[in-house]
Amino acid sequence: MASRIEVIESTAGEVATELRRRGIGADERVTIMIDQDKELIPGRREARARIVAAGLTDDDIDRLIKQAQREVEPRLG
User: Fold this and answer.
1) Whose C-alpha in 7, 11, 32, 56 is 20 to 30 A from the C-alpha of 38?
2) Which of 20, 38, 17 is nearest to 28 (CA)?
3) Residue 60: helix, strand or coil by DSSP?
4) pTM above 0.85, yes or no
């Protein structure tokens, strides 16, 4: 049986929906390629993994970002 290669560009959150739309069943094998060169903020994935490993949540991350912004804002003017 010959392999058929098809390129689908999608977000991680929409992969399952896109596969279902194409009639690909949950038990069928697929190969997914992750293209990190298109990442908008290089290094963010690595930094987030370290933060989560340190036991922080997304709320903690948001709080730290807002705190850093408040610390820097007075110096901008």
Assistant:
1) 56
2) 20
3) helix
4) no
Token pair 């003017």 is found at: 77
The answer to whether 42 and 32 are in contact (CB under 8 A) is: no
**CA dist., res. 3 & res. 68, Å (int):** 51
Give the tokens for residue 14: 């929409």
Backbone phi, then psi, for 30, in 5-degree steps?
A: -135, 160
44-53 helix and 58-76 helix, angle to the nearest 10 degrees: 120
Averaged over successive runs of 10 residues, the pLDDT of the chain (77 residues) comes to: 76 89 91 72 76 88 87 73
Q: Is 17 exposed, middle or buried (0-12, 13-18, 19+ CB in 10 A)?
A: exposed
Q: Which residues contact 30 (CB under 8 A, 6 or more apart)?
A: 19, 24
Contacts 24+ apart (CB under 8 A), 25-30: none
